[in-house]
Amino acid sequence: MGLGADLVHSTLGRHILADGYDFVIDLDKSAGCHFHDSRSGRDILDMFSCFASLPLGWNHPDLLAAKGELARASVNKVANSDLYTEAMAESVAAFGRIASPSYLPHHFFVSGGALAVENTMKAAMDWKSHDREAMGIDASGKFDWDTDQEKSSHLTIGHFHEAFHGRSGYTLSVTNTDPNKTARFAKFDWPRFDNPKIHFPVDEAENARLDACEAATLDSIRAHAEANPDTMAAIIMEPIQGEGGDNHFRDSFLRDMRSVCDEVGALYIFDEVQTGMGATGKMWAHQHSSVEPDMIAFGKKSQVCGLMAGPRLKEFDDNVFATSSRINSTWGGNLTDFVRARLILETIERDDLVRNAEVVGAELIAGLNEFGTSHEMVSSVRGRGLFAAFTLPSQDIRNRFNSACLEAGMHVLNSGTQSIRLRPSLTFSSDEVNEGLNILESVANSIESSAVA
Q1: Is the pLDDT of residue 12 over 90?
Q2: Which of 16, 217, 268, 390 measures 20 to 30 Å from 124, CA to CA?
Q3: In a 3-state reduction of DSSP, which class is residue 380?
Q4: Which pTM does this prediction carry?
């Protein structure tokens, strides 16, 4: 007999800060895009999907059918960095075939999105250090601790306002959303640039504003590089900033960023931990812009996290993909996660779920636009595929709206200071779009009625 749902929070609270949601997930009764709350007995429409990390919803039949394979991978936690198995090789091959763009053939796997991002930074710093030596800026030769400290201290990572890239060592210096996540921790003073995000809906005036904002950002990057030549190893950005407010950028700006990175001698990195694996209607969000970065970080829906890199990372023989232990971890990505990732990718491919995200996502965003037109409190409806959001008049109203959605039977997620973000699984259906829109309509009507009263 189990612990009992009503004792879960108090039991956890004896040892950890158990300040999560009040419900308790029933791992048996949850199914598809609904999870079952053991405490209330309710089925909740899941527009949260474990912080956008649940690609097939709950208890997908393909995963249930593979319980034996998953259990076999879980009995022994193999040190994948140096000990290889058929299960790992099959999973890496599936990832390369189904998920990896041809221009990013070099892979590294690790557990955790922040560590995926951090290792793109380390790879970029390694590349830039070799680049500086090749240009004669830094001397090459036998390693010396003090000399290396001085040489590496010049290296920086450019990034954007309202970015979230994680909470581990290097990533703390480029994350700047919620101060609770970075305050009082030592950080590097790395260049931070204005993010020329789109204000929706887009009209002629907004495009003119964006022209000016984008030009100013690009000029500030050039100015920083001119004042601090050959120090910026890379510029990292999210194709759509998730936690920072679901901030979108014009495709042309992402292409201009490719050009300016080349111009100033920096690698171009996309953090696709949240936007990747089909959420936007393409396998990777940057593919909407027809731009090829030097690296991307991936995680969440991919189960196992890591990075993919292009040919520039191989320009120097002594690179992180050729020299042992330059980037590494004990488990190199959990073997159970590898197996689950392979099963998920095979299902995504077979059921054409990236296309489903595009088609059903278009229905969702069309419905959200109608919803926004009907309610003055709703503004800036935006999204790509099943990666959607809208803005409310204040943080207080947004928080009330979020709570009311859960009470009405749908779990959503906050974004930025005033927005609600929707992150359903790739299996989301037209019927579930309608279910979600009906709940949003009911919640908006209720909040508007209470304001009038």
Answers
A1: yes
A2: 217
A3: strand
A4: 0.97
